[in-house]
Amino acid sequence: MIEVINLSKYFEKKKVLDNISVTFEKGVTNLVIGQSGSGKTVLLKCIVGLLKPDEGEVYFNDICFTKLDTKSKREVRKKIGMLFQGSALFDSLTVEENVRFPLDMFTEMSSEEKHERVNFCLNRVNLTNVNKLYPSELSGGMQKRVGIARAIVLNPLYLFCDEPNSGLDPKTAMVIDTLIKEITEEYNITTIINTHDMNSVMRLGTNIVFLYQGTVQWVGSKDEILKSENQKLNEFVFASTYIEKA
Protein backbone atom coordinates (compact mmCIF):
# COMPACT_ATOMS: atom_id res chain seq x y z
CA MET A 1 0.00 0.00 0.00
CA ILE A 2 1.08 3.57 -0.70
CA GLU A 3 -0.42 6.48 1.21
CA VAL A 4 -0.10 10.15 0.24
CA ILE A 5 -0.93 12.62 3.00
CA ASN A 6 -1.53 16.38 2.49
CA LEU A 7 0.98 16.57 -0.35
CA SER A 8 1.56 19.88 -2.13
CA LYS A 9 4.08 20.89 -4.78
CA TYR A 10 5.00 24.35 -6.10
CA PHE A 11 6.94 25.39 -9.16
CA GLU A 12 8.11 28.91 -8.35
CA LYS A 13 4.90 30.48 -7.02
CA LYS A 14 2.47 28.21 -8.85
CA LYS A 15 0.84 25.45 -6.81
CA VAL A 16 0.76 22.38 -9.06
CA LEU A 17 -0.45 19.90 -6.42
CA ASP A 18 -2.76 21.15 -3.68
CA ASN A 19 -3.08 19.13 -0.45
CA ILE A 20 -3.35 15.68 -2.08
CA SER A 21 -4.41 12.83 0.22
CA VAL A 22 -5.01 9.43 -1.40
CA THR A 23 -4.43 5.75 -0.69
CA PHE A 24 -3.29 3.27 -3.34
CA GLU A 25 -4.19 -0.33 -2.52
CA LYS A 26 -2.04 -3.44 -2.87
CA GLY A 27 -2.82 -6.09 -5.48
CA VAL A 28 -5.14 -3.91 -7.59
CA THR A 29 -4.73 -1.46 -10.45
CA ASN A 30 -4.84 2.08 -9.06
CA LEU A 31 -5.39 4.73 -11.74
CA VAL A 32 -4.70 8.46 -11.62
CA ILE A 33 -6.70 10.22 -14.33
CA GLY A 34 -7.17 13.78 -15.48
CA GLN A 35 -6.54 16.03 -18.45
CA SER A 36 -3.07 17.19 -19.43
CA GLY A 37 -1.73 19.63 -16.85
CA SER A 38 -3.84 18.24 -14.01
CA GLY A 39 -0.77 17.16 -12.04
CA LYS A 40 -0.73 13.41 -12.72
CA THR A 41 2.94 13.11 -13.67
CA VAL A 42 4.07 15.53 -10.96
CA LEU A 43 2.23 13.42 -8.37
CA LEU A 44 3.89 10.25 -9.65
CA LYS A 45 7.33 11.88 -9.53
CA CYS A 46 6.73 13.12 -5.98
CA ILE A 47 5.71 9.64 -4.84
CA VAL A 48 8.83 7.96 -6.23
CA GLY A 49 11.13 10.77 -5.12
CA LEU A 50 12.07 12.24 -8.48
CA LEU A 51 10.58 15.49 -7.17
CA LYS A 52 10.58 16.67 -3.56
CA PRO A 53 7.17 17.71 -2.22
CA ASP A 54 7.01 21.13 -0.60
CA GLU A 55 4.46 19.87 1.91
CA GLY A 56 3.09 16.51 3.00
CA GLU A 57 4.29 12.93 3.28
CA VAL A 58 4.41 9.71 1.26
CA TYR A 59 4.29 6.33 2.98
CA PHE A 60 5.31 3.02 1.44
CA ASN A 61 3.49 0.65 3.78
CA ASP A 62 4.61 1.96 7.19
CA ILE A 63 7.76 3.73 5.94
CA CYS A 64 7.65 7.52 5.61
CA PHE A 65 9.58 7.79 2.34
CA THR A 66 9.74 11.59 2.31
CA LYS A 67 11.68 11.67 5.59
CA LEU A 68 14.29 9.04 4.67
CA ASP A 69 17.92 9.89 3.98
CA THR A 70 19.41 9.24 0.55
CA LYS A 71 20.74 5.77 1.42
CA SER A 72 17.42 4.62 2.87
CA LYS A 73 15.49 5.98 -0.12
CA ARG A 74 17.75 3.94 -2.38
CA GLU A 75 16.73 0.79 -0.49
CA VAL A 76 13.05 1.57 -1.05
CA ARG A 77 13.66 2.32 -4.74
CA LYS A 78 15.02 -1.21 -5.18
CA LYS A 79 11.45 -2.34 -4.58
CA ILE A 80 10.01 0.00 -7.24
CA GLY A 81 9.47 -0.80 -10.91
CA MET A 82 8.91 1.98 -13.45
CA LEU A 83 7.28 1.82 -16.88
CA PHE A 84 7.90 5.17 -18.53
CA GLN A 85 5.92 6.85 -21.27
CA GLY A 86 7.55 5.83 -24.55
CA SER A 87 9.18 2.83 -22.80
CA ALA A 88 12.47 4.78 -22.31
CA LEU A 89 14.62 1.89 -23.47
CA PHE A 90 18.32 2.43 -24.12
CA ASP A 91 18.69 2.45 -27.91
CA SER A 92 22.32 1.33 -27.79
CA LEU A 93 21.56 -1.73 -25.64
CA THR A 94 19.97 -5.00 -26.70
CA VAL A 95 16.68 -6.19 -25.23
CA GLU A 96 18.52 -8.45 -22.82
CA GLU A 97 20.86 -5.66 -21.75
CA ASN A 98 17.91 -3.29 -21.21
CA VAL A 99 16.06 -5.75 -18.98
CA ARG A 100 19.26 -6.69 -17.13
CA PHE A 101 20.16 -3.05 -16.41
CA PRO A 102 18.44 -2.86 -12.96
CA LEU A 103 20.08 -6.15 -11.97
CA ASP A 104 23.49 -4.70 -12.87
CA MET A 105 22.71 -1.55 -10.89
CA PHE A 106 21.21 -2.98 -7.73
CA THR A 107 22.24 -6.64 -7.29
CA GLU A 108 25.31 -8.81 -6.98
CA MET A 109 23.78 -11.70 -8.89
CA SER A 110 26.04 -13.81 -11.08
CA SER A 111 25.89 -13.48 -14.87
CA GLU A 112 24.08 -16.80 -15.08
CA GLU A 113 21.50 -15.74 -12.48
CA LYS A 114 20.92 -12.46 -14.31
CA HIS A 115 20.48 -14.28 -17.61
CA GLU A 116 17.92 -16.65 -16.07
CA ARG A 117 16.01 -13.78 -14.47
CA VAL A 118 15.94 -11.78 -17.71
CA ASN A 119 14.62 -14.76 -19.65
CA PHE A 120 11.98 -15.42 -17.00
CA CYS A 121 10.70 -11.83 -17.24
CA LEU A 122 10.74 -11.79 -21.04
CA ASN A 123 8.79 -15.04 -21.09
CA ARG A 124 6.32 -13.57 -18.60
CA VAL A 125 5.52 -10.73 -21.01
CA ASN A 126 5.28 -13.21 -23.91
CA LEU A 127 8.53 -12.29 -25.65
CA THR A 128 10.88 -14.98 -26.90
CA ASN A 129 13.92 -14.95 -29.18
CA VAL A 130 14.33 -11.19 -28.87
CA ASN A 131 17.29 -11.04 -26.46
CA LYS A 132 19.82 -9.88 -29.03
CA LEU A 133 17.55 -7.45 -30.86
CA TYR A 134 17.72 -3.68 -30.36
CA PRO A 135 14.69 -1.50 -29.51
CA SER A 136 14.62 -0.05 -33.03
CA GLU A 137 13.96 -3.56 -34.35
CA LEU A 138 10.80 -3.96 -32.25
CA SER A 139 7.24 -2.72 -32.67
CA GLY A 140 5.83 -0.17 -30.23
CA GLY A 141 3.87 -2.85 -28.38
CA MET A 142 6.92 -5.09 -28.08
CA GLN A 143 8.95 -2.16 -26.72
CA LYS A 144 6.29 -1.63 -24.05
CA ARG A 145 6.49 -5.29 -23.08
CA VAL A 146 10.27 -5.04 -22.81
CA GLY A 147 9.70 -2.01 -20.58
CA ILE A 148 7.36 -4.08 -18.38
CA ALA A 149 9.92 -6.91 -18.21
CA ARG A 150 12.56 -4.42 -17.06
CA ALA A 151 10.13 -2.92 -14.54
CA ILE A 152 9.48 -6.29 -12.85
CA VAL A 153 12.98 -7.77 -13.07
CA LEU A 154 13.78 -6.84 -9.44
CA ASN A 155 10.56 -8.41 -8.12
CA PRO A 156 9.14 -5.00 -7.14
CA LEU A 157 6.55 -4.42 -4.46
CA TYR A 158 5.44 -1.26 -6.27
CA LEU A 159 4.91 -0.62 -9.99
CA PHE A 160 4.47 2.84 -11.55
CA CYS A 161 3.24 3.25 -15.13
CA ASP A 162 3.18 6.67 -16.81
CA GLU A 163 0.79 6.67 -19.80
CA PRO A 164 1.61 3.01 -20.67
CA ASN A 165 -0.59 3.04 -23.79
CA SER A 166 0.71 6.26 -25.28
CA GLY A 167 1.18 5.85 -29.04
CA LEU A 168 -0.31 2.35 -29.22
CA ASP A 169 -3.20 1.16 -31.35
CA PRO A 170 -6.34 0.02 -29.44
CA LYS A 171 -5.66 -3.72 -29.83
CA THR A 172 -2.07 -3.44 -28.58
CA ALA A 173 -3.19 -1.14 -25.76
CA MET A 174 -5.62 -3.84 -24.63
CA VAL A 175 -2.77 -6.38 -24.54
CA ILE A 176 -0.64 -4.05 -22.39
CA ASP A 177 -3.54 -3.31 -20.04
CA THR A 178 -4.23 -7.02 -19.58
CA LEU A 179 -0.57 -7.75 -18.94
CA ILE A 180 -0.25 -5.02 -16.29
CA LYS A 181 -3.41 -6.23 -14.55
CA GLU A 182 -2.26 -9.86 -14.57
CA ILE A 183 1.18 -9.02 -13.18
CA THR A 184 -0.32 -6.78 -10.49
CA GLU A 185 -2.64 -9.52 -9.25
CA GLU A 186 -0.19 -12.39 -9.73
CA TYR A 187 2.60 -10.78 -7.70
CA ASN A 188 0.33 -8.75 -5.37
CA ILE A 189 1.99 -5.46 -6.38
CA THR A 190 0.81 -1.95 -5.56
CA THR A 191 0.41 -0.57 -9.09
CA ILE A 192 -0.24 3.08 -9.93
CA ILE A 193 -1.06 4.02 -13.53
CA ASN A 194 -1.22 7.57 -14.88
CA THR A 195 -3.54 7.74 -17.88
CA HIS A 196 -6.10 9.81 -19.73
CA ASP A 197 -7.19 6.81 -21.85
CA MET A 198 -10.80 6.07 -20.89
CA ASN A 199 -10.67 2.64 -22.51
CA SER A 200 -7.91 1.69 -20.05
CA VAL A 201 -9.89 3.23 -17.20
CA MET A 202 -12.91 1.05 -17.97
CA ARG A 203 -10.74 -2.07 -18.29
CA LEU A 204 -8.52 -1.55 -15.25
CA GLY A 205 -10.08 0.94 -12.85
CA THR A 206 -10.37 -0.85 -9.53
CA ASN A 207 -9.37 2.30 -7.64
CA ILE A 208 -9.50 5.57 -9.61
CA VAL A 209 -8.30 9.00 -8.49
CA PHE A 210 -9.44 11.96 -10.60
CA LEU A 211 -7.22 15.06 -10.48
CA TYR A 212 -8.36 18.49 -11.62
CA GLN A 213 -5.98 21.45 -11.49
CA GLY A 214 -3.82 19.74 -8.89
CA THR A 215 -6.61 18.72 -6.53
CA VAL A 216 -8.37 15.39 -5.88
CA GLN A 217 -11.90 15.84 -7.22
CA TRP A 218 -13.20 12.27 -7.05
CA VAL A 219 -12.20 8.75 -5.97
CA GLY A 220 -14.03 5.57 -6.96
CA SER A 221 -14.13 2.49 -9.20
CA LYS A 222 -14.85 1.90 -12.89
CA ASP A 223 -18.33 0.70 -11.90
CA GLU A 224 -19.03 4.02 -10.19
CA ILE A 225 -17.42 6.43 -12.62
CA LEU A 226 -20.25 6.58 -15.16
CA LYS A 227 -22.78 7.18 -12.36
CA SER A 228 -20.86 10.06 -10.81
CA GLU A 229 -22.51 13.43 -10.37
CA ASN A 230 -19.17 15.23 -10.25
CA GLN A 231 -19.37 17.80 -13.04
CA LYS A 232 -15.62 18.05 -13.70
CA LEU A 233 -15.27 14.27 -13.84
CA ASN A 234 -18.21 13.94 -16.21
CA GLU A 235 -16.75 16.60 -18.51
CA PHE A 236 -13.49 14.64 -18.61
CA VAL A 237 -15.11 11.22 -19.07
CA PHE A 238 -17.64 12.14 -21.73
CA ALA A 239 -15.19 14.26 -23.71
CA SER A 240 -13.86 10.93 -24.97
CA THR A 241 -15.38 9.95 -28.31
CA TYR A 242 -15.35 6.25 -27.47
CA ILE A 243 -15.58 4.39 -24.19
CA GLU A 244 -15.25 0.64 -24.27
CA LYS A 245 -17.85 -1.00 -22.06
CA ALA A 246 -16.41 -2.77 -19.00
Give a description of the structure.
The protein has 246 residues and is α/β, with parallel strands linked by helices. It has a domain at 91-155. It has helices at residues 40-48, 70-77, 95-106, 111-124, 140-152, 170-186, 198-204, 222-225, 231-237; strands at residues 2-11, 14-24, 29-33, 55-60, 63-64, 80-83, 158-162, 190-195, 207-212, 215-220. Strand 1 and strand 2 form a beta hairpin. Helix 6 runs parallel beside helix 7. It is globular. Mean pLDDT is 90; it is low at 241-246.
SSE blueprint:
Elements: E1 2-11, E2 14-24, E3 29-33, H1 40-48, E4 55-60, E5 63-64, H2 70-77, E6 80-83, H3 95-106, H4 111-124, H5 140-152, E7 158-162, H6 170-186, E8 190-195, H7 198-204, E9 207-212, E10 215-220, H8 222-225, H9 231-237
Parallel strand pairs: 3-8, 3-9, 6-7, 7-8
Antiparallel strand pairs: 1-2, 1-4, 4-5, 9-10
Helix pairs in contact: 3-4, 3-5, 4-5, 5-6, 6-7
